[in-house]
Amino acid sequence: MFYLLLTSETDPDIPRLMEAYQHPSVARYIHLDEVNYWHYVSTTNNVFYHKVYDKDHLVAAVHCELSMQTLYLDIMVLPQFQRHGIGTMILQDVLNGKVSPPFSRIEVDIDESNAASLKLFEKMGFQFVSQEDELCHYVWQRS
């Protein structure tokens, strides 16, 4: 796996990424404002959007926002690569500091019906903190 930071709202992989975000298996959990999102992630300080490749294939994306040593995280695996352990590999890389600037804590919100993501984050040591409506809030703290 290697990570490439998205730095332009005209990045040539955006159409492929948008296809993935619009796929029913992704769209039911991740919603983004297509008009403003790519500008936001490519120009905002402390926001890092990495395209994830396995060999020459785009397989996923990681959206990170860093605020006061807390990393807010979203992982999106392209539908055809889901259930192949890619999310686990990405999360291991994040925890090992290969993807983002230094952090001491990670926070994620996961839809309560997204069983695969809930299982992944729990397996990786994230602790359930609270639930608001359909979103479960999990935290990982560096020891």
Write the layout of secondary structure elements.
Elements: E1 2-5, H1 14-22, H2 24-27, H3 37-43, E2 47-54, E3 57-67, E4 70-77, H4 86-95, E5 105-111, H5 115-123, E6 127-132, E7 135-141
Key terms for this structure?
alpha+beta, 5 helices, 27% helix
Main beta sheet: 7 strands, mixed
Number of distinct helices: 5
User: Which runs of at least 5 residues are low in confidence (pLDDT < 50)?
Assistant: none
Overall 3D geometry?
globular
Total beta strands: 7
Q: What's the helical proportion of residues?
A: 25-40%
Estimate the strand proportion: 35-45%
Radius of gyration: 14 Å
The order of strands across the largest sheet is 1-2-3-4-5-7-6
User: By helix and strand content, what is the structural category?
Assistant: alpha+beta
Distance between the termini: 26 Å
Mean pLDDT, as a whole number? 94
| SSE arrangement, N to C | EHHHEEEHEHEE
Could you explain the architecture of this structure?
With about 140 residues, the protein is of the alpha+beta class. The protein contains 5 helices and 7 strands; from the N terminus they run βαααβββαβαββ. It has helices spanning about 15-20, 25, 35-45, 85-95, 115-125, and strands at about 1-5, 45-55, 55-65, 70-75, 105-110, 125-130, 135-140. Strands 1-2-3-4-5-7-6 form a 7-stranded mixed sheet, sandwiched between helices. The protein is globular and about 40 Å long.
Q: What is shown here, in short?
A:
The protein is α+β, with helices and mostly antiparallel strands and 143 residues long.
